[in-house]
Automatic annotation (TrEMBL):
Species of origin: Brassica oleracea var. oleracea
GO MF, any single term: RNA helicase activity
PANTHER family cross-referenced by the UniProt entry: SEC63 DOMAIN-CONTAINING, U5 SMALL NUCLEAR RIBONUCLEOPROTEIN 200 KDA HELICASE
CC terms in the record's Gene Ontology section: endoplasmic reticulum; membrane; spliceosomal complex
Entry keyword Secreted: no
UniProt keyword terms in alphabetical order: Chaperone, Endoplasmic reticulum, Membrane, Transmembrane, Transmembrane helix
Protein name (database record): SEC63 domain-containing protein
Keyword Signal: no
GO BP of this protein: spliceosome conformational change to release U4 (or U4atac) and U1 (or U11)
Length: 57
């Protein structure tokens, strides 16, 4: 197996219940290759739900 510089992945996660900008940090860690761990920061803008089904009273 060879190491690749790029890969596409899809991350599914539960959106926070509160609207606003949320900051996340992704950690990619290798248990096989020393020094290949990576850290990425990303910002997600969570918008208000458009339906009343998802809103708390």
């Amino acid at each position: 197996m060879s190491l690749q510089n790029k890969a596409k992945v899809k991350l599914d996660f539960q959106a926070p219940s509160e609207a606003g900008e949320k900051l996340y940090t992704l950690y990619f860690m290798s248990d096989s290759y020393l020094g290949y761990d990576q850290e990425y920061s990303l910002s997600v803008d969570v918008e208000e739900s458009g339906t009343e089904d998802h809103m708390e009273e």
